[in-house]
Amino acid sequence: MNLLDPGHLLSAFGVTGIFVVLLAETGLLIGFLLPGDTLLLAAGVLSAGPGHRLPLAGVLVAAASGAVLGAQAGYLIGRAGDRWAARSAPDGRVRTALDRSGVLLQRYGAARTIVLARFIPVVRTVINPLAGMTRIPVRTFTVWQVAGGVVWATAIPLAGYALGTRVPGLERYVTGLVVVAVGLTVVVSGAQWLRSRRSGTPGAPASDG
After folding, report:
1. C-beta atoms surrounding 142 within 10 Å
2. What is the reported pLDDT for 193?
3. C-beta of residue 18 within 8 angstroms of C-beta of residue 39
4. Predicted confidence (pLDDT) per residue in 113-171, tens digit
5. Under a CB-based contact definition with an 8 Å cutoff, are residues 134 and 164 in contact?
């Protein structure tokens, strides 16, 4: 079983796998290893295939539940552990994401950052414990993480479902579709990183316009 392959995960565990993966990806610092966006896209495509291999309603409920509960768990871990998670996080992607999340919080404020972070791989994993560490009010965090989590966790499967209904047989090429999606994510992230480097603000997103 390849836990990083969305097709294998969905075939083996169905909607339960979606819930568990999103719970871990958004709630634990190990979650950056898991395929959140690509899993949701693949689930949406499979929901539109012949025989509806996955129920769309089940996918949406499992995805939203996992995303919301995972984020809240991550926040509580951050509040309980204070700076422990930041100190114990390994160098590399997690450390970079922690720094980037801090820049986002300072630049855009808590509400906007919590929502936007849902759509940025790795950052959405660390923003929740970081919000707890920095003592963002529970009510503020909860309201905006639920709003962002529901939008993110439903929009991507619905996009995959719409694509699957318009391209017959697409479910047979889920792996290839995932590779393309990952490639686009890498390209966009790389372009954003280069742009932020040129602006002299490491890890910060480029300003509008």
Report:
1. 16
2. 52
3. yes
4. 889 888 887 788 888 888 888 888 999 999 999 999 999 999 999 988 988 887 766 55
5. no
For the entire predicted model, the pTM comes to: 0.72
Q: Write a three-state SS string for the chain.
A: CCCCCHHHHHHHHHHHHHHHHHHHHHHCHHHHHCCHHHHHHHHHHHHHCCCCCCCHHHHHHHHHHHHHHHHHHHHHHHHHHCCHHHHHCCCCHHHHHHHHHHHHHHHHCHHHHHHHHCCCCCHHHHHHHHHHHCCCCHHHHHHHHHHHHHHHHHHHHHHHHHHHHHCCCHHHHHHHHHHHHHHHHHHHHHHHHHHHHHHCCCCCCCCCC
Q: Give whichever of 45-49, 178-182, 199-203 has the largest mean pLDDT.
A: 45-49
Nearest to 17 by CA among 76, 74, 49, 58: 58
Contact of 110 with 131, CB cutoff 8 Å: yes
User: Residue for token digits 């603000």?
Assistant: 201
* Mean pLDDT computed over 6-31: 80
